[in-house]
Amino acid sequence: MSKRNRDIVIKSQFNIHGSRGKSVKNFIAGYVARDAATDASLAWLPPTDRPSVQGDGVVFTLDSTAISREETLALADRAEELFQNKDRAIQQMVFSFSPEYLVSSGVVPADVEILEKGAYKYKYDDVRLRHAVQAGVWAMCEQERYADPKMAAAIQSDTMHLHVHAVVWEDGISYARRRGKEEKGVIKGSSLGKCSREIKRSLESTKDLSCIPIQQYLTPYYLEEQGPPSLVEEPTFLLEYERLQKELEELQNRKPEEKLISDDLYVR
Fold first, then answer.
1. pTM of this prediction?
2. How many CB atoms within 10 Å of residue 258?
3. What three-state secondary structure class fits 161?
């Protein structure tokens, strides 16, 4: 089923008994959250007790703006358990946005040119877009009376159209959509319509809070020396900035007779 308007297209399908693939874990961890298509969130900061790893900050849920790769795998394991052992229907959703709406809603700066696949990478307000999808899916779940709904979603920027993949399921003992003893793989068009309206309401009500694309937060040194941030480098850009600031302070405090001969080696 799909719900279309001029700005947002929402497509929804259900995987029941392997009708859309035999594993939802692989779909979540290997497709929705795959490195080649996704970007880590500006809202993600790695825990202080461990370094960031590939895939951190990519996935968001109904109540978290960004989660770690470890948490993503745990969430995928839970969805897989329900799918395999409890005959649970797993909803697979795609949210596509028109380029014009992304600009008018402040998600993408007006001067960004999208001339090839992947051009959206790190050039959009991922935090507001994540919050908007959260609001939309929550509205849909409330309309459908989902029991303890869960979601694993990720923004994908590897095509000519910025889009979001979301996997949604009911984690409660009971579930809302029934056909006898089995969960139904259907959803009302009105629920998808409410989802779309809530996404738009969220984006339009927060337009004045639009964030600058992440590259503009990075120091010129970091961009010139390291190149565009990767999924590993990007979440730690604040730490990189602090390191550079510390190095600058050390340079300023060095004695005049000390001479810099390389980035890391000083002699008298």
1. 0.77
2. 11
3. coil
